[in-house]
Amino acid sequence: MAGMTSSARPPLNRRFAEFGTTIFAEMSALAARTGSINLGQGFPDTDGPDEVREAAVHALREGRGNQYPPGPGVPELRTAIAAHQEHRYGLVHDPDTEVLVTAGATEAIAAALLALLEPGDEVIAFEPYYDSYAASIAMAGGTRVPVTLRPHEGGFRLDLDELRAAVTDRTRLLLVNTPHNPTGAVLTREELSAIAALAVERDLLVVTDEVYEHLVFDDAEHLPLATFPGMRERTVTIGSAGKTFSFTGWKVGWVTATPELVGAVRAVKQFLTYVASGPFQYAVAEALALPDSYFTALRADLLAKRDLLAAGLTEAGFEVFRPAGTYFITTDIRPLGEKDGFAFCRVLPERAGVVAIPNAVFYDDREAGAPFVRFAFCKREGVLREAADRLRRL
Predict the structure, then answer these.
(1) pLDDT of residue 5 exceeding 70
(2) Kind of pairing, strands 372-376 and 328-332?
(3) Is-above-0.90 flag for pTM?
């Protein structure tokens, strides 16, 4: 009969049985259907620098990248990535053997985990975590082991003793994200030193997602894990242009690591997208060479927006965890008499005309994340003011 499968087994691979449509798609569709302000999915509502956009136009018109670019990425971008890492952090990389361009950070994460894991390997990830982490670990046949970041003094902190206790003889890899999505935590030098010492002691690989590296506020400082003793040779560092330059649709990410680790990731990446975003790669090369003043202005702009939305959320009755990085604010809804983030977010558009994301989707322990809700502040100030006004109606 048409439409029937040939066996009783479900069509979807059982490793993916727990993963349905992402919460971002669900909530963005809800925003569109209700005409609500979408503070759920993390994308800016304005484009990045004009000169970067024009660089992409020029590349298109000049025929650069319109056909398959080189597998590792165009040389101009690989050179720019290496220069960025050296200028910012003193990390020296060979653009030809230690840099790989990917279709955004999401592909970099998937390719790295598929390359470095065998079925049954354990991966420690800091919970709550970006939803692609769990899916990528599942694709690789790995076992995820969450270590939960917990509320502490107005933010979220890592329990180093809990991290050490989570490592077993089956642990292969630590998956680190700093600045951290969704909590906005930025790991401190002390925390990163402890992670590095643990990785060296137990001979662990580390994949570190640093896509929000330029979005840090107040006294926070982004410190790449690869700069710590013993980490250069065991760390795969992942970066991306989307968050820093407000061109999330271009999907240009990258990996930096030793030749051996980059070679492993590239072996998998070539069978995922092979190559992507040809003309945009040339534009991102120019973006990475922007003066320091661009990055300073970006942080100042987002800091003002963070404070604007945080004030509105506080006045609306939420408990607000002020982020040290990223462009997300996590809140606790219990002061509003609520306790179920899923239910709250699904009715929030009707109650206030605003869409947010329930943090529970980022937890293995859904109960631990149940009262937390995430709002994005990477929007125009007028949009944030209107959202704050609407939320005060709660």
Answers:
(1) no
(2) antiparallel
(3) yes
